[in-house]
Amino acid sequence: MRKNIIEAYKAAVRAKYKEEKFGEIPNPSAAKLRDLCIRIFTETKNPEDLSAFRIFFGFEFKEDEVQKIKKDTDRFKPIGTFLKGETELRDEAIDMAAILVDFKPRPLQKFTKEFQKAANPTPAGAETDPGESETMANEKENPDIIQGFVNIDDEKKDGIPPVPPKGSLTINERSAKFLWAIGGATVLILLIWVMTEHFFTPKNCMIWASDHYEAIDCNTTAKSGKIIALDEKLLLEFKQLPISSSLVFFDESGQPIVWYSKSPERNIELFNSPGKHPVTGETLKKITPNIISTYIDLNPN
């Protein structure tokens, strides 16, 4: 059930972007999404959005640390390709996508509550006193709002409250039925979208998305990156590593646990597993102390 709700949330966020794509982000490049993110978080005080920022970046938003965001533009690439329908998105990044397109209800936790509430509405009067329905209570307080009732003068006849004719509804009951219908229709639309977009579309291929592989429909036309056959191990485990002073290159026995690729421009890219470079196809090499000291700046300004 939770997986279905997450997929519905992702589908709804993408639908919101498609609805509003001629607004803030008609072409969601990583740089545009980054700048929009900075503008949003410079103004917002929403604690839930700030929490989503912390989960996405790994640090609290502070205006004097905007440069840290600008240096991490690539982090927004998967969101851009997701919004355009080219790739899927990791669960931990979907709340940031929702913020950027201003989708509500967000975050996922709030969407889940609304989704479940719409899927399982509580009948009107379910929480009233067992001996007195909400309709009866409203009748005593506001007899004029009930239509089609028998003569109010008969209210206390034989000690039995009057019963509305068959087919008549109180205002509260009408409102409840209307809300249930709207909620049910919303859930149905979301489920149809999810089933079409996610369950009936085979994702037997994958594509490199900035620092990890993402599953993709083999019939998708990718504007950037090479679509390859799905490999579950690569999809789940293979990642590019950010260069930082906290990165551990060797295990306790001194064996390398990081692999690298060096470009013609002598730039180094690091990965957590052996294999081939996802873009160039070059075989990755085990990291060495010499490579670290010669090419890797562990304390960039």
Architecture overview:
The protein contains eleven helices and seven strands. The protein is of the alpha+beta class and 301 residues long. It has three domains: 2-119, no CATH class; 134-173, no CATH class; 239-295, no CATH class. The strands form two sheets. The protein has a four-stranded antiparallel beta sheet with strand order 4-6-5-7, with no helix packed on it. Strands 2-1-3 form a three-stranded antiparallel beta sheet. β5 (259-262) and β6 form a beta hairpin. α1 (2-20) packs across α7 (108-119) and α7 packs across α9 (171-199). The longest helix has 29 residues, at 171-199. The radius of gyration is 28 Å and the shape is globular.
Spell out the key features of this protein.
alpha+beta; 301 residues; 3-stranded antiparallel β-sheet; 7 strands; 3 domains; 11 helices
Task: Write a concise synopsis of the structure shown.
Helix content is 42%, strand content 8%. It has 301 residues and is α+β, with helices and mostly antiparallel strands. It has a 4-stranded antiparallel sheet with strand order 4-6-5-7, with no helix packed on it. A 3-stranded antiparallel sheet has the order 2-1-3.
Task: Present the secondary structure layout.
Layout: H1 2-20, H2 30-43, H3 47-57, H4 66-70, H5 77-83, H6 94-100, H7 108-119, H8 134-141, H9 171-199, E1 205-209, E2 212-216, E3 227-229, H10 232-237, E4 240-241, E5 259-262, E6 268-271, E7 285-286, H11 289-295
Antiparallel strand pairs: 1-2, 1-3, 4-6, 5-6, 5-7
Helix pairs in contact: 1-7, 1-9, 7-9
